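Internal tracking record. Fields below are filled automatically when a chain is submitted to the structure queue. Please do not edit lines marked as system-generated. If the sequence contains nonstandard residues, flag them in the REMARKS field before resubmitting.
Queue: standard
Priority: normal
Entity type: single polypeptide chain
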Amino acid sequence: MATDTAGAWQAWRDGQAVLILRHALAPGVGDPAGFVLDDCRSQRNLNQQGQQQAKAWGEKLRQLHDGSFRLYSSQWCRCLETAQLMAIAEVKPLPALNSFFAGRGNAQAQTQALLQYFSVSISPEPIILISHQVNFTELTGIFPQSAAGAIVALPLTQPARVLAQVRLVAKDE
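SYSTEM-GENERATED OUTPUT FOLLOWS
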């Protein structure tokens, strides 16, 4: 993996890479019994720290790029809330980013759909993907903490070509 974080951010700004983020902090593992996709009360949701992380990502991305963005999210409430609190673009729900933890989805089919969706070599705008640990790990081989990310070269491949791992607290970002 490359260690040139500045170069990775430039590739992202130039539309030659995507930023994939694990949703901000939502304490716990998996989802409670009785999970319903369209009912946030039945899901694990962001706590106050997670809400602050999402807002901080939005601020950071606006500092890194003063133009428009393409923002895609899992349909899970913790991912949608992360994306909405970033307040950088209209959030486009993308089922390929939905969790497949504990048999909820299909890892292979969703990852292939993601690879196909982002099979372009260049995007006219920087792309941000908000997803889950299992999706992030399946694509990159990295086990991310909440609100951690990676800049991944386009077109997406499996394994992905990770240009840099990124976090909110790193000073060199």
